[in-house]
Amino acid sequence: MKSLLIDTSNKVISMAINDDGINIAEINANVARTHSETLMVYISRLFEYAGMEKNEIDRIIVARGPGSYTGVRIGVTVAKTLAFSLKIDLYSVSSLFVLAASSDRQGIVVPLFDARRGNVFTAAYKFNEDDFEEIQAPAHISFEDLKGKMKDENVSFYGNSTEQFKNVDGFAHLTPRISDVERFAKALKQEHIHDFVPEYLRVSEAERNWMDKNQ
Fold first, then answer.
1. How far is CA 62 from CA 26, 141, 168, 180, in A?
2. What is the pLDDT along the chain (215 residues), one digit of tens a residue?
3. Residue 169's domain is classified under what CATH number?
4. What is the pTM for the complete model shown?
5. Which range of residues forms the domain containing residue 82?
6. Cβ(91)–Cβ(191) under 8 Å?
7. Domain count, the chain
8. 188 in the same domain as 169
9. 215 within domain boundaries
């Protein structure tokens, strides 16, 4: 089973080609260019590095969010387009789980994405070898509320942005690598290509402004 994995949900772009769960090529890049500029270029390079053609892929796994609205939308749109054109299965995985799985840490792992205004996108997973339990579903909550929930737990916090979290006990910076998620089969959700929508966990600022004006 050959899989193309794509995560554009945050500043770091992560993609990989795995063969039966074993990584054969990957790109993890943090560059000052938009994902819309780089994604298709990196996909082409990835297949070159792997020595494969796109029609050799059996399925696509894409990070469904949360994260950057534009970033999530770009990755999901490209994944849906490729899955449709290649007539292959499409799976999704939480962007928060991508970050948590990248830690290769046992016990309770809490991934953090800065959602601004004192809020975070977060979840909590308890890892045991190649299995895990979701103990906090992905959510958009205040950072103070999260710290209150987790204050009595032995927790490892991870994020790909340090400024907001630098004074948090147990926090470490981590770059997400989507190549690591395939070993956690139950984290993957098969999607219907035409019905699949990203998991934003909040309305966009434009949608919020529209609702405020039309209440």
1. 14, 24, 30, 13
2. 999 999 999 989 999 999 999 999 999 998 767 888 899 999 999 999 999 999 999 999 999 999 999 999 999 999 999 999 999 999 999 999 999 999 999 999 999 999 988 899 999 999 999 899 999 999 999 988 887 888 767 899 999 776 678 778 888 999 999 999 999 999 999 999 999 999 999 754 444 443 345 45
3. 3.30.420.200
4. 0.91
5. 2-95+177-209
6. yes
7. 2
8. no
9. no
